[in-house]
Design brief:
Blueprint: H1 7-23, H2 32-97, H3 100-103
């Protein structure tokens, strides 16, 4: 004859039965649509990250080129100003050393004509 079941055994059987019933109500983990959603989200996030890196690189290139062009512009203007100053000094030096009227005497037309009294 079997011994009567202990109250602990009855409780264990009831908990096992409840666990089996509740287990069927739990959504399975690792469904394909969830994995696809996560994969799509990861791809979009990676695209966003790559776009952000590209935008940062473009901004850095623009900054570097702008700075280089600014320095080139400043050097060009400085060089132009130097050339203009030297050219102006050369013109002034030439004008100080040469006098057009002294080097190119003006022949007045009346000097080649007979005096007015002879008319």
């Amino acid at each position: 004859r079997a011994a009567p079941a202990a109250p602990e055994d009855e409780l264990a059987k009831e908990m096992t039965h409840d666990l089996e019933m509740n287990f069927n109500k739990i959504a399975p983990f690792g469904k394909e649509d969830t994995a696809k959603e996560l994969q799509d989200h990861a791809a979009k996030t990676q695209d966003t990250l790559v776009d952000a890196v590209e935008n940062a690189e473009v901004a850095e290139i623009k900054r570097a080129v702008f700075r280089a062009l600014t320095r080139l512009r400043a050097a060009t203007i400085k060089e132009f100003d130097t050339i203009a100053r030297l050219e102006t000094q050369a013109i002034d030096a030439y004008n100080d050393a040469h006098h057009y009227r002294a080097e190119n005497p003006l022949a007045h037309l009346h000097e080649d004509e007979a005096p007015v009294e002879t008319d």
